[in-house]
Amino acid sequence: MNAQVKRPVAPSASSPLNKEQVLAHLAEPSTPNAAAGDAMIEVHGLSKLYNGVAALSDVTLSVGKGEFVTLLGPSGSGKSTLLNLISGMTTPTSGTILINGTDATTLPTNQRGLGMVFQNYALMPHMTVFQNIAFPLQVRKVGKDEIRQRVMDVLKLIQLEHVAARRPRELSGGQQQRISLARCIVYNPPLILMDEPLGALDKKLREGMQLEIKRLHADLGVTMLYVTHDQDEALTMSDRIVLMRGGKIEQQGTPETLYFKPETVFSADFIGSSNLFPGKLVEGECGLVLRCAAGTFEVPGAEGAFPAGSTAVLLVRPENIAVETPGDASGRQQIEATLKDTVVLGGIVRHFLETPAGEQIIAQELNQPNRSRLMRGDAVKVSWRVADGRLLPAERA
Amino acid sequence: MTRPLRIAAVFFVPVVAWACYLFLLLPSVIVFPISFGTGGEFEFPPRALSLGLYQQFFTDAAWWGAMMQSLMIALMTALATTVLGLPAAYALQRARLSGAGLINGFIMGPLLVPVIVLGLGLYLQFAPWNLLNRDISLFLSHTMLAVPFMMISVGASLRHLDPTLENAALIMGASKPAIFFKVVLPQLKAGIAAGALFAFLISFDEVIVAYFVTGPETQTLPVKMYSAMRWELSPVIAAASTLVTVFSILLAIGIMMLQRKEEQR
User: Fold this and answer.
1) Which residue among A40, A319, B113, B217 is buried most deeply as judged by most CB within 10 Å?
2) CA–CA separation, B72 vs B221, rounded Å?
């Protein structure tokens, strides 16, 4: 439905470059090639079949210069296939790929001038750290003195000058991945591809590396295309997230857009946790209401997209649901529920509730020293502001 | 396990194992003292120790000439095996060839055919081409016998080699030859060296095929030893056996050390 809708590059507060791109996009929104000069990657109608099965089908995507775009999706969604097509490791069944304004659809991998960071670091075990970082420069026939200078510069940038003479296996996973990053940025590729680069690191290290990659992105102004299945990573790092599903783009936009304005049940479910109430829209006393298993709910303005009689799903994020309605109940949808369990996750508290009809509801609030303690099995009234709900089309079967 | 069984396991099994080991080892070991004997016949134990048999070995051109011939053929076989086996192993592992299994089976074939059959076949093949009693026929036969061992050795190293390293080098802009020589080859060094030593050893030890395709001028050391047993019964053969055994053991130790180095990676 909206998989091929080309959206303008979303603005990002952190990078002024992106705002210019947005303006360029907005100037001539109807011609897709108008922004070719500003696009690092232009992918058109790209498909890849493996033995007749589509790993990627008819994907059109544009990545602006200097943008940090994340391909997010479960395994088998086509995100790695798309990355491999852009790197040239695989050839597309149909469609075109433009990199930095030139047609790269059939260009050999080693002539695309890209950088790539792999999940398993892919450092050469028989070379020292210095030799590893020098390798792409030697390939480019850079002079010896310049190689020494540039390698030491990037080692300084990642604060690992002291390991230059060591072998990769003598380093920790986090250090190895930083060396792998250094090996990439040393030859200034205009585009860096990252294939789950932090997947092999533990949580704490991963968070540190996320910030380091973001810092490098901001400092170098390089375009980054990042593949992950980790929604938190995507939300933390990206200017724009491209959510993929079954070889197609499900939705793309800024992290805020994907979180607050998901357009499909899949998007809502994949990013953040969600309460979903499937039901049927019927004419109520004042406008449409959703009739579902848990009751009949008021719905936010549906803007004509959902006619009466159609099936739809109401999304309410857990943090928008209050257990025990605050004093002013106007504009709120309220329902009865039983508390099944409460889990304290440090700074936040999560309540698991069940409606009389047996539907599960998750509510989330900030942990406070003076919050009211509820007992398991308590009958409570939960509520949310009608405007905080979001109506989504029912999933295709 | 019951107590008597445990006692049996602790004491009986090592005793049997050592007995078998000695049974296999003794025939090779017994030539060792004999080779230091004197005089013109086999003596065990030798009545006096001397290096006389070794002196005979190195002064008789028929003996040390055969050894030089063996060393030269083995060296050439090792080189040819590396040049042929390394690219073949790499291609079979990396390139998605149709019929790769068939090609692999074809190259590994000599391992499965009885050597006596191979020897006869090669004899019948080389005879009409007038290649018998020539170095080239021996070199070709031994290369054919040794290539499978190079393939196995390099193949084992290749399986340890992460293909993403080659992909990473490709994305960094390296050409295919540069990737082979700078990324792949340095990591296969130990496997190649082990394969080459294997090839050397196989050629150096081989007697059956060599017996078929060599003549008086191209005789290798094992063939010379075999004919010495039949026609001369000279005790110099004990010195020759000792030399071959020591040399083979040294090469085998070399291979083991290379394989251990490989495992430590």
Assistant:
1) A40
2) 11
Q: Is A53 helix (H, G, I), strand (E, B) or coil?
A: strand
Residues in A touching B182 (Cβ below 8 Å)? 135
Could you report the predicted ipTM of this complex, rounded to two decimals?
Answer: 0.78
Does the bond joining B45 to the residue before it have cis omega, within 30 degrees of 0? Answer: yes
Residue matched to tokens 């089976």: B105
Question: How many Å apart are CA B210 and CA B215, to the nearest integer?
Answer: 9
Q: How far apart are CA A225 and CA A40, in angstroms?
A: 10
Look at the block and give the residue holding tokens 């929104």: A29
Residue of chain A minimizing CA distance to B185: A126
Please write the tens of the pLDDT for every residue from B41-54. 777 777 778 888 88
Delimit the domains of chain B by residue range.
61-264
Angle between helices A203-220 and A173-185 (to 10 degrees): 10
In whole angstroms, what is the distance from residue B10 CA to residue B3 CA? 11
**In angstroms, what separates the C-alpha of B106 from chain A's closest C-alpha?**
29
Cβ burial, residue B17 (10 Å; 0-12/13-18/19+): exposed
CATH number of B61-264: 1.10.3720.10
Look up the pTM and report it. 0.78
Distances in Å between the Cα of A366 and the Cα atoms of A244, A363, B67 are 31, 11, 87
More confident residue, B17 or B263: B17
